Amino acid sequence: MIWEALGAVIVGFAIALSARRWLPERFPDRVLTLATGPVAALLGALLTRSILGPGHPVQVMVAACAVGAALLSVLVRPPRRRHRRPAAPLKGHRTAC
To answer: How many alpha carbons fall within 13 Å on the CB side of residue 4?
Structure first.
């Protein structure tokens, strides 16, 4: 049980670090991201272990990875849009002025 929990925390931290490294502008706060990953993975591992029981370490780690990634995706901000300047009116078209 201890090794599964420790493994889930390490997996969650790795997911959070990789998400923060690949998409730094999409995650609002570094501390929040790095805290959410391990906690979410631990939650997924403990929930899976309570459902399946002991003796399923692979399934527990897969669920830890899935729950960690799913809860980290809640923190993702949408990309910033560039401000587009208004298009110039086309020649020969009437404009409402």
So the answer is: 21
Tokens describing residue 87: 């298009």
CB 40 within 8 A of CB 70: yes
The Cα 39–Cα 46 span in angstroms is 11
Q: What is the pLDDT of residues 6-28, one digit of tens each?
A: 999 999 999 999 999 998 888 87
Q: Alpha helices of the chain — where are they, by DSSP H?
A: 2-22, 30-52, 57-73
pTM of the model: 0.75
Which residue type is seen at 17? Answer: L
Share the mean pLDDT of the chain.
86
Residue among 11, 71, 10, 62 nearest 40 (CA): 71
Residue type, 5: A
Residue found by looking up tokens 């809860």 in the block: 71
HSE, side-chain direction, 13 A CA sphere, residue 48: 24
